[in-house]
Design brief:
Radius of gyration: 35 Å
Shape: globular
Strand content: 5-15%
Largest sheet: 5 strands, mixed
Number of strands: 18
Length: 709
């Protein structure tokens, strides 16, 4: 090994007097004087930031954010309570501009926290903010998570603590803007330093909205359970706490179809109380869901006004036209599609044909009688009239929009329409049309692919009809025929056709089995009127409309278009219309002939005669009327045997009479128009066929509980 010193450390070739080569890294020391020399970065490495640059950038960002936070904290002060905390008034107008009602008066009674039981406080915290007592006024992680969820298309999500929600309710407005969120953030921080947690919780409980126009926990206790907040049970407290998340959806009296969702939220609150140690598990396990009382609305909503206003509010919210919180804040001027002339016509028809026949003093069953109705323009989809009940302050439940009574045989036309739409065949291979012959024997077993199904529905009053064509089966509403036809078509296809025509997908009790043929579905009169309007419009369906125009100050609210589409083939809709004309001409719906112009329709009776229906239309108007039985005290559905002095209430009776009287007055002055049908040869039976007859109703209740007529 050589003892000579190396010369490679300075980056030069031996014997060279020049500077170090460019690619030399060395140790950064020069050969002269041992001074450090800065290294040079070459190639792509020159583009990368140095650690000094990164550190500087981070520090600058931190300084900017800190500065913004400090500036925001100093500049934003706690304002005076906003006027929206007292809620503005919404004005609702008929289609002609006359006023229906003004809504928005605040129902609020403030209470001190000392008057609110701990169980109530804990229930609200379990529902909305379980970390309230040991968290800061804001939760940055939750806010970022909510913001990211909205940016990535996950929908709006709350990232607010109870303090922030209180700030929003009491000091700010409900608009979802960055400016408002920023103010909410800084006011919450300041508020957290200036007031106690107890004061914040008290303010939150007094400003939160619980539905039924009840602002604050005290008003909510009276609105739902008719008692002071201090008297609420733990189960009732959990239900009220659950309402804060979605007051409109979780009111089980107004929306019985959402009871499962409301109960799930109620369970979530109670489970949270157990998790936080606020409720014993053994106590929680023995609790039953506390059904709220029937609502008692304010006096300015008396008569039909309340039904119309509530229906419009639900329409705006459920169709996401106006956010529920914004609507509560008020200031809207809403022109509806309701026409005063037709509203009066429907009210008069119900009063003259039904209510005037009741004797509530001497017949107990007459106290159970309720009526509901909806009328839709097939061409425009506008809801022109609605009958919700005898008066909003007397019967809060809107009988026009409720979805808890079986529609009975008014569902049968959807089966026939589906058969034509899908070119279905009988078990014997024959195409299904108006002339197709079926076996109408009572309790005949339904067959599928040549095998029995153990399904043998009874006809009304256990009548047998033998071999009859479909037209006669529709005239007489023969259950055994349509139960078999439903299987021939396929229950799922029948359901899809009903949805295509306008029955909402979320309607309760629309099964995909043979029972769908007997009308176990619990749709509303509005749902049915929309679907029958599609038949009247030759199979074209467009979503119904309840609002013509809505403004808030200078802001014009965007409304969805009617935009009708061909939902089912015209031949399917027109063939169904043609067969329904026969029901009015010579079947169970002859009472509807009082309309005095061409009409088509179908009668229906729910299980145990708890409801009777007539659904029908002319070329200009689709209307559905239902007469229902309900105990006002318990809310239980009741049979209507003996009501109005009649042995039975069926669809061909009072509902058809009301329908005829309403339609005659509603269409008064308009030219008589006949149906323009394209049945492609699938017409009703020749005129030489003996007309279907309807025997007088029996004086005894039917032996079967099957939906019929």
């Amino acid at each position: 090994m050589s003892d000579e010193p190396t010369t490679e450390s300075d980056g030069r070739e031996p014997g060279s007097d020049g500077p170090p080569s460019d690619d030399s890294e060395g140790d950064g020391m020069s050969s002269e004087g041992g001074k450090k020399k800065k290294k040079r970065r070459t190639g792509w490495r020159r583009l990368l930031p140095t650690w000094r640059m990164v550190l500087g950038g981070v520090l600058l960002f931190v300084l900017l954010v800190s500065g913004a936070l400090v500036a925001g904290y100093l500049l934003v002060s706690i304002p005076s309570p906003n006027k929206a905390a007292a809620a503005q008034t919404n004005v609702y107008l008929y289609a002609d501009g006359t006023q229906i009602a003004r809504d928005g008066e605040v129902n609020r009674e403030n209470v001190t926290l000392s008057k609110v039981p701990k169980t109530v406080q804990h229930a609200v915290l379990a529902a909305e903010d379980r970390d309230f007592y040991h968290e800061t006024a804001v939760d940055p992680k939750a806010m970022l998570r909510a913001g990211w969820n909205m940016l990535t298309g996950g929908g709006r999500q709350s990232g607010s603590t109870i303090t922030q929600q209180y700030v929003k309710n009491y000091y700010l407005d409900q608009d979802q803007t960055i400016t408002r969120k920023a103010k909410e953030f800084f006011i919450a921080l300041k508020l957290d330093r200036e007031v106690s947690k107890a004061e914040v919780l008290q303010g939150y409980l007094n400003t939160s909205y619980f539905g039924r126009n009840a602002y604050g926990i005290q008003s909510a206790a009276h609105a739902y359970y008719g008692k002071d907040v201090s008297k609420l049970t733990t189960a009732e407290s959990a239900y009220l706490a659950a309402l804060v998340n979605s007051p409109n959806a979780y009111d089980t009296r107004a929306h019985p179809e959402n009871r499962a969702r409301a109960k799930a939220r109620w369970n979530y609150v109670l489970d949270g109380m157990v998790t936080e140690g606020w409720l014993k598990k053994s106590t929680r396990e023995g609790m039953k869901f506390p059904e709220p009382d029937e609502a008692k609305p304010p006096g300015n909503m008396a008569g039909e006004r309340g039904y119309l206003v509530e229906a419009v509010k639900n329409y705006l919210i459920e169709n996401r036209i106006v956010d529920e919180q914004r609507l509560r804040a008020g200031g809207f001027r809403i022109t509806t599609t309701f026409q005063p002339k037709k509203q009066k016509a429907m009210r008069n028809a119900v009063d003259d044909k039904l209510m005037s026949q009741l004797d509530k003093k001497n017949r107990k069953v007459d106290k159970y009688v309720r009526a509901g109705g909806s009328s839709v323009d097939p061409r425009t989809g506008k809801v022109v009239a609605m009958y919700g009940g005898i008066g909003f302050t007397e019967q809060f439940m809107n009988n026009a929009t409720r979805r808890d009574y079986q529609v009975g045989s008014t569902f049968k036309p959807f089966i026939f329409a589906s058969a034509v739409q899908n070119k279905s065949k009988t078990q014997g291979g024959s195409s299904i049309n108006a002339r197709t012959v079926y076996d109408g024997t009572n309790k005949r077993e339904v067959m599928s692919d040549g095998r029995g199904t153990d399904y043998s529905p009874a006809n009304e009053d256990d009548r047998s009809y033998g071999q009859i064509p479909v037209t006669t089966a529709m005239d007489k509403s023969v259950n055994s025929v349509f139960a078999q036809m439903g299987v021939d078509v396929g229950p799922k296809k029948v359901k899809n056709t009903a949805i295509d025509l306008g029955i909402p997908k979320n309607v309760p009790n629309m099964p995909e089995d043979g029972s769908i043929a007997l009308g176990v579905t619990t749709a509303s009169t509005l749902d049915m009127a929309e679907a029958y309007a599609s038949l009247a419009n030759h199979g074209k369906h467009g979503h119904y409309r309840m609002v013509e125009k809505a403004t808030r100050g200078n802001e014009v609210i965007d409304l969805p278009d009617h935009d009708p589409k061909q939902a089912v083939p015209r031949v399917a809709a027109d063939s169904t219309t043609d067969i329904l004309r026969s029901v009015v001409k010579s079947g169970t719906g002859t009472a509807a002939q009082s309309v005095g112009r061409p009409a088509a329709g179908k009668t229906g009776t729910a299980e145990e005669d708890k409801a009777a229906w007539f659904a029908g239309f002319t070329p200009e108007l689709s209307t559905v009327i239902s007469v229902m039985g309900q105990d006002s005290d318990s809310g239980a559905q009741k049979p209507l045997y003996g009501a109005a002095g009649q042995p039975r209430i069926n669809g061909g009776g009072y509902p058809a009479k009301i329908w005829g009287a309403y339609m005659k007055e509603a269409l008064d002055g308009r030219p008589v128009k006949d149906f323009d049908l394209d049945t492609n040869g699938d017409a009703e039976l020749p005129s030489t066929q003996p007309p279907a007859t309807t025997e007088p109703p029996t004086t005894e209740p039917p032996s079967t509980g099957s939906p019929s007529e």
